[in-house]
Design goal:
The chain is mostly helical and 131 residues long. It is built from 6 helices and no strands. Helix 1 packs antiparallel against helix 2 and helix 3 packs across helix 4. The protein folds into 3 domains: 66 residues, no CATH class; 34 residues; 29 residues, no CATH class. The mean pLDDT is 77. Helices cover 65% and strands 0% of the residues.
Length: 131
């Protein structure tokens, strides 16, 4: 099977359920991470409607083979204003989340995903270094 436009499996309800469960389990049930993830995935799929195989593999869909998917995506990014706006919006949101939560290091990101309060980690690190 060749690469498709990206809607093969990652734009299905089955993917939504599986990815949410993985994130929810990985974050040890941290709803402040898993629920925004779920809403983001669902929002993404809604924005891609009607060109998504929501019920794959339970209903058959025709998938189109794209010879060079990266080049296809870059062309689409520069020629389709909707794609450009949504991609730029996504990048801005990611930058906002990183800056707002001060996720500048990998350990900050893992602590955030685990639900550990950054202030507590910082205070604990200061106590450990002063002892």
């Amino acid at each position: 099977m060749g690469l498709t436009s990206g809607r093969f499996f990652s734009h299905t309800l089955l993917f939504v359920i599986i990815s949410f469960l993985i994130v929810h389990l990985f974050t040890k049930g941290n709803k402040s991470v898993s629920l925004p993830f779920l809403s983001g995935v669902i929002s993404h799929i809604i924005l891609d409607l009607p060109f998504v195989p929501l019920f794959y593999p339970f209903i058959s869909y025709n998938f189109y083979y794209i010879e060079e998917p990266l080049i296809y995506w870059i062309r689409k990014l520069w020629t389709d204003p909707i794609v450009m706006v949504t991609e730029i919006t996504g990048i801005i949101l990611i930058i906002f989340i990183i800056k707002y939560n001060k996720l500048y290091h990998f350990s900050d990101i893992t602590n955030y995903l685990k639900g550990i309060n950054q202030n507590i980690v910082q205070i604990s690190n200061e106590i450990n270094t002063s002892v």
